[in-house]
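Worked example

This section walks through a single chain of length 293. The input is the sequence exactly as stored; nothing has been trimmed or padded.
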Amino acid sequence: MIDYEGLKNILKAHPAACAILDYANGKRDYKEISKLTKIHKTKVSTILRKAFNLNLLEKKEGLYKKTKEFKPINVKKLVKDSGINNTQQSEIKTKRKSKRNLTTVGIKKEIKEYLVNHYYIIEHPFAPDKKLKISKADIEIAAAKLFEYLDADFELEQLKTLSLRFYESFAHYWGCNRYKKDEQINAFSSLVKNFEPFVKKVAAIKSRNVSLGKKSLNNETISNAMTFTSDIDKHQEDYWKDKDIKEACIRIVYPYRHKEAHEARDYFPYQMEKIVFYMFAAIIFICLDKPNP
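Given that input, the structure is written out below as tokens.
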């Protein structure tokens, strides 16, 4: 029995889902489908897993194949008949407008839903074969802690407006028009620039040391925000392949924390999506880490 509502939800949430599901013929894994569709493997893997959980796909030795019930269904026709039409700019503009009109409460709800729906499995950014599962309960705890840290009163002037900047930049990025590269780049730059002040604020709160909020993002600051034993300045991939997933997520975002829009001109959309994905993965790990004594 096909879960049509579940299938429609996948197609609505992911404009690329139709193309990805078409390539699930029992001969390809998510990496090969990623290459064929030119869509980042993290997104491809997410869509395939959701379809698998709805019993739309079978999986054998890492290869995805449509089930007998799902195979006869014309997905493209379903998209058209259902009025989903994810590829049309008109819908994207409507989405963007609705996101920007959200209140802080609404944005928090969107952030929580984003985390719950995308972070139940996190791949190691430098060694994709290593994965970490996170329960829905833990993700919800992390979301609550994220809002607690963002909304906490703080005496340093440069961190007082962090919560406002964070919520607005998330709404901007989540609702931006992906068909307009300039808009996505600007939204991306605004969002990732919140990473450093967030880590510094958490470090200051956990250590009860306000001065950490003034320092640069370095090993000392990070280790006060979460358990961290690596050297953040090491840039060699081989060094990070053997490190904990939690620490590797911090490192992959680290070089991008000051990126201005003009510096991100050459980035492909999937690169920006990947950086944002790991930024929130790092935030989840920071929020789940126990406070310093």
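What to look for: The longest helix spans residues 269-288.
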